[in-house]
Amino acid sequence: MPTGPGDDSRPSGSPEPTSAREGEAAELVELVHSSARGDQDAFAELYDRTSGRVYGIVWRVLRSPDHAAEVTQEVYTEVWRQAARFDSVKGSALAWIATMAHRRAVDRVRSVTREVARDEHYAVTGIGREVDHVWEGVEQRMEAARVRKALESLTPIQREALTLAYFGGFTQTEIAARLELPLGTVKTRVRDGLIRLRDALGVEA
Amino acid sequence: MNEIHGATGAYVLDALEADELEEFEAHRAVCSTCSREVAEFCETAPRLSVLAAAPPPPPALRTSILRGLSDVHQLPPLHGDVLQERPREVDELALRRSSRRARVLSVLVAAVSVLALALGGAVYSLARQQQAPVAGPSADNSLLAAPDARIVPMVLANGAQVSFVVSKSQNRALFVGGHLPSPGLGKTYELWTMRDQAVTADNLVPAGTNVAQWFHGPIQESTGVAVSIEDVGGADRPTDVQGVVTL
């Protein structure tokens, strides 16, 4: 049975993801496995199913179409190269790809585009407000609503610290300076925020 | 030391500074609680990406990526269980070590010995070569402790300052760049090993700050190593050679 976006009464550690999400996750794993065997069509489908998310997060961190394209290409090249080393026991395919993407985007922003990309203030209210036109599918819109709702259950500081790190690519020290908070507080809020998100969304690790 | 447990969130969001990153990775190697939490957060954090208001990827990017696939050498599956310690994505680490070394390493880590902790620190920080700083010679004590280890600094054709760390006795070499400028759109740095006239493609190196990348290939028999700039995915033969070291 699909769970509605409002149902976050699941105890942590025993998630019941929607069957759609589960099915999607299983299909992505298959696509990675097929890619590992050199199947370029499977890889193309994997790209089609994940590139919106991947390019989105890379673009959001880098704020530059050129850098975003370059890093996205780097990420998918690595996915293809390392597909045989993906282990579905340890996590989902999307997490594997998205983690790689975020890390590379952050790495790039810190080494190349520090001044260019990050002058703008990342207002929390701006996060996820203008996405609906990007996502065509009902599933994705539901997922966006679910994630946004989960994010709203955080305290303002947790939310701000989390979004500055994830969407802004800032280090915890930079976040502490921006929010005028002690470093230890930022670290704690980031972890607490992720715990809250994890529990609201369910763990699918 | 207890405070390090609290770094799981910042770690997964790539928000730790270099020194703490290294400390945390060493800790995570021996802390199952943190390992588990990191794995869970790695599932949670990417779900935020659905909220990344951004334009869709340009169609040309898809074409370019798919066209490049046939030039990319796919890695074989891993054997050994070093990966068990690392719920994160890339296991460039295991590429860099012989499976014998890897097995020895995972046994040590499992034993949670002091030695494992020390080794784990070095190994795990290198596993995150994207961000792990190569703090000079402390980057990999085991490589640098080799009696024949050589550090060869060099300025590449594009002006980047890099170093090669080579030990024939250990059969390993490491490529290090404090600041590796972007090789250009659709381009990548690529490492090569040379044996007399034969040149063999080795690892790819992403641009970035504090980059460290191992050579896959055996170094013992090599007469030289090199780095070049190639199309993304790497090439079979070097075209734009940036620097060469004779061994």
Automatic annotation (TrEMBL), chain A:
<dbReference type="GO" id="GO:0003677">
    <property type="term" value="F:DNA binding"/>
</dbReference>
<feature type="domain" description="RNA polymerase sigma-70 region 2">
    <location>
        <begin position="46"/>
        <end position="114"/>
    </location>
</feature>
<comment type="similarity">
    <text>Belongs to the sigma-70 factor family. ECF subfamily.</text>
</comment>
<dbReference type="InterPro" id="IPR036388">
    <property type="entry name" value="WH-like_DNA-bd_sf"/>
</dbReference>
<dbReference type="Pfam" id="PF04542">
    <property type="entry name" value="Sigma70_r2"/>
</dbReference>
<feature type="domain" description="RNA polymerase sigma factor 70 region 4 type 2">
    <location>
        <begin position="146"/>
        <end position="196"/>
    </location>
</feature>
<dbReference type="InterPro" id="IPR007627">
    <property type="entry name" value="RNA_pol_sigma70_r2"/>
</dbReference>
<protein>
    <submittedName>
        <fullName>RNA polymerase sigma-70 factor (ECF subfamily)</fullName>
    </submittedName>
</protein>
<dbReference type="InterPro" id="IPR014284">
    <property type="entry name" value="RNA_pol_sigma-70_dom"/>
</dbReference>
<dbReference type="GO" id="GO:0016987">
    <property type="term" value="F:sigma factor activity"/>
</dbReference>
<dbReference type="Pfam" id="PF08281">
    <property type="entry name" value="Sigma70_r4_2"/>
</dbReference>
<keyword id="KW-0804">Transcription</keyword>
<feature type="region of interest" description="Disordered">
    <location>
        <begin position="1"/>
        <end position="24"/>
    </location>
</feature>
<dbReference type="InterPro" id="IPR013325">
    <property type="entry name" value="RNA_pol_sigma_r2"/>
</dbReference>
<dbReference type="InterPro" id="IPR039425">
    <property type="entry name" value="RNA_pol_sigma-70-like"/>
</dbReference>
<dbReference type="InterPro" id="IPR013249">
    <property type="entry name" value="RNA_pol_sigma70_r4_t2"/>
</dbReference>
<dbReference type="GO" id="GO:0006352">
    <property type="term" value="P:DNA-templated transcription initiation"/>
</dbReference>
<keyword id="KW-0731">Sigma factor</keyword>
<dbReference type="InterPro" id="IPR013324">
    <property type="entry name" value="RNA_pol_sigma_r3/r4-like"/>
</dbReference>
<keyword id="KW-0805">Transcription regulation</keyword>
Automatic annotation (TrEMBL), chain B:
<feature type="transmembrane region" description="Helical">
    <location>
        <begin position="104"/>
        <end position="127"/>
    </location>
</feature>
<feature type="domain" description="Anti-sigma K factor RskA C-terminal">
    <location>
        <begin position="108"/>
        <end position="239"/>
    </location>
</feature>
<dbReference type="InterPro" id="IPR041916">
    <property type="entry name" value="Anti_sigma_zinc_sf"/>
</dbReference>
<dbReference type="InterPro" id="IPR051474">
    <property type="entry name" value="Anti-sigma-K/W_factor"/>
</dbReference>
<keyword id="KW-1133">Transmembrane helix</keyword>
<protein>
    <recommendedName>
        <fullName>Regulator of SigK</fullName>
    </recommendedName>
</protein>
<dbReference type="GO" id="GO:0016989">
    <property type="term" value="F:sigma factor antagonist activity"/>
</dbReference>
<keyword id="KW-0805">Transcription regulation</keyword>
<dbReference type="InterPro" id="IPR018764">
    <property type="entry name" value="RskA_C"/>
</dbReference>
<keyword id="KW-0804">Transcription</keyword>
<keyword id="KW-0812">Transmembrane</keyword>
<keyword id="KW-0472">Membrane</keyword>
<dbReference type="GO" id="GO:0005886">
    <property type="term" value="C:plasma membrane"/>
</dbReference>
<dbReference type="GO" id="GO:0006417">
    <property type="term" value="P:regulation of translation"/>
</dbReference>
<dbReference type="Pfam" id="PF10099">
    <property type="entry name" value="RskA_C"/>
</dbReference>
<keyword id="KW-1003">Cell membrane</keyword>
